[in-house]
Amino acid sequence: MTNPLYDALIAPLANRTTPVLTDSTGAEMTGAKLHAKALSYAAALCSLGLKPGDRLAVQIDKSAQALALYCGALAAGIVFLPLNTAYTAAEVEYFVANSGAALLVGAPDKQDELAQVAARNGARFETLDALGEGSLTDIARLIGPSFTPVARAADDLAAILYTSGTTGRSKGAMLTQANLLSNCDVLMAEWRFTDQDVLLHMLPIFHTHGLFVATNVVLRAGGRMIFLAGFKVDQALKFLPQATTMMGVPTFYTRLLDSPEFTRDLVAHMRLFTSGSAPLLAETHEEFEGRTGHRILERYGMTETNMNTSNPYDGERRAGTVGFPLQGVEVKITDPNTGEEVPRGTAGMIEVRGPNVFKGYWEMPEKTREELRENGFFITGDIGQIDADGYISIVGRQKDLIITGGYNVYPKEIELILDEQEGVLESAVIGVPHPDFGEAVVGVLVPRAGAKPDLDAIKAAMGESLAKFKQPKTLVEVAELPRNTMGKVQKNLLRQEFDAMFKVDA
Ligand code: AMP
For residue 179, what is the enclosing H or E element? Predict the structure, then answer.
């Protein structure tokens, strides 16, 4: 019997008497205990009638039990489908219906709504709360951990993760055993994870970053996690002294830097800080190095592909770039219209191929054909370029491309200049409808605390460094940029907000 992910990540826990998880109260869970809990959940899922290949949708808070449930699903060959805890019942219904989930597990305080969602879609419903208690845990406890893991092939599905869907309906990315295991092995090796590592884990576990990049790598390496419900500066400051590594989204780093208690001494012992899921400003990278002496290692990935590129562990971690393709991953930059490769240094569509790339979108063969080429290259939707040394940088999402007066404008180029202006903390550049130009470039600025940026001076500075068509037609100030839980700026919300600014009344 083989079950690649179970064998690599979970089976080794069976005899481990040392802790694999520590929570915010300092309570520890040994490897053997996590293993037993995983098998109990696997047995519970089977007792509820789930079979290998069935989908298990979960909308649950982060806890050791939630992680054990993920491990149990892998052992039972059941496809794990984690959902953002912020989704409303109506949103959850789409995922349950679309995936044909056999079981929905949700928080007890949402039981009334979610049980109906499940019932309407022919799924069962069980509960699991933030402390790991609930009807599913009751069943698991009753049944106990006697369970024989189910055989799985490398190409069998391990998980379905839905894309965040800011431009349309979310799509379920089908991730196989081999997708997850190959990526976890490559990351463990490239980032030098060992059984001596203690990862400060503050990311959500409904997303590829917290669930696969963080958890799979640590389990595979035999390390330990300080498993916190989410990111809080005071908690991070408290637990960093006990950790060797931290994985974060850029906002974790900017918020740590805002704290005077985040000092060089506090993190002198740390081995590695990584960042991803959204662009890390070069300025943050530099400020972090100035404060701590550590250079954050930035990497790039997505739901459909796991991780694609990383700055080097040894060698220069170049600010503002996402490094080189990971071992076994091919990256090429193509013309978005023709699909032909563009010359080095030219911005174009990032396409990736490798064992990490997903199998397709769940029951959306047409969407799959549009984005996953027959030759295996996935069209990421990200625009990027490769510099003379081979470092890849992301210019932006293709859907954020602005077409003004027939010219293409990549927001990132303008944002980099805006960010450098006096009094500007950060910026986002968007396109909004314009009667003459089709779209007009709008610069949205967040002032630094207490600063009053001089908008006329900024406009003049833009005039010096940018071609006329790239210069923002207008600059607006906002208190902060809208971001999702992974720290990504939600440009769709900004576009909605400023949609009517150039509208001419009929
Ligand atoms: P998700 O599928 O939610 O993980 O989002 C993936 C998207 O996040 C990618 O397609 C990129 O647009 C963005 N992303 C991830 N990592 C980075 C990074 N290091 N720099 C810039 N954008 C990133």
Answer: helix 177-190
Task: Please tell me whether residues 231 and 305 are part of one structural domain.
Answer: yes
Residue after which a domain boundary falls, among 119, 136, 152: 152
Domain tally, the chain: 3
Nearest residue by C-alpha to atom 10 in ligand 1: 302
Cα(43) to centroid of ligand 1, in Å? Answer: 36
Looking at the fold, whether 315 and 379 belong to one and the same domain comes out as yes
User: Residue 445 is part of a domain; what is its CATH number?
Assistant: 3.30.300.30
Q: What's the pLDDT tens digit per position in 399-422?
A: 888 988 888 888 998 999 999 999
Same-domain check for residues 40 and 115: yes
Same domain, 235 and 328: yes
Pick the residue whose CA is nearest to atom 6 on ligand 1: 302
Amino acid (1-letter code) at residue 127: T
Whether 276 and 300 have beta carbons less than 8 Å apart is answered as: yes
- Give the residue from 346, 366, 397 where a domain finishes: 397
Taking alpha carbons only, the member of 140, 239, 257, 162 closest to residue 208 is 162
pLDDT, mean of residues 134-154: 98
Q: Are residues 357 and 319 in the same domain?
A: yes
Q: How far is the CA of 103 from the centre of ligand 1 (A)?
A: 30
The verdict on 330 and 206 lying in the same domain is yes
| 173, part of any domain | no
Over range 1-19, report the average pLDDT: 96
Instruction: Please identify, by atom number, the ligand 1 atom nearest to the C-alpha of residue 163.
Output: 2
Note whether 375 and 415 are same-domain residues.
Answer: no
How far CA 441 is from CA of 90, 279, 474, 501, in Å, comes to 35, 21, 7, 11
Asked if residue 170 is part of any domain, the answer here is: no
Q: What is the CATH number of the domain that holds 115?
A: 3.40.50.12780
Which amino acid, 479?
A
**φ, ψ for residue 203 (rounded to 5)?**
-85, 155
Of 331, 394, 412, the residue with max ligand 1 atoms within 8 A of its CB, to mutate for a pocket test, comes to 394
Beta bridge partners of 103: 56, 124
Using only the alpha carbons of the chain, give its radius of gyration. Answer: 23
User: What's the 490 CA to ligand 1 centre distance in angstroms?
Assistant: 12
Quote the ligand 1 centre to 309 CA distance (angstroms). Answer: 11
104 plus 206 within the same structural domain: no
Domain housing 128 = 4-152
Report the pocket of ligand 1 as residue ranges, CB < 6 Å. Answer: 163-164, 208, 276-279, 298, 300-303, 322, 380, 382, 394, 397, 486
Does pTM top 0.85 for this prediction?
yes
HSE of 155 in the Cβ direction (CA atoms, 13 Å)? 2
Q: Which helix (H) or strand (E) holds 441?
A: strand 438-447
- Residue 165, pLDDT score: 65
Secondary structure class of 247 (helix, strand, coil): strand
How far does residue 24's CA lie from ligand 1's centre (Å)?
A: 29
CA 452 to chain centre: 34
For 397, the token pair is 């999402």
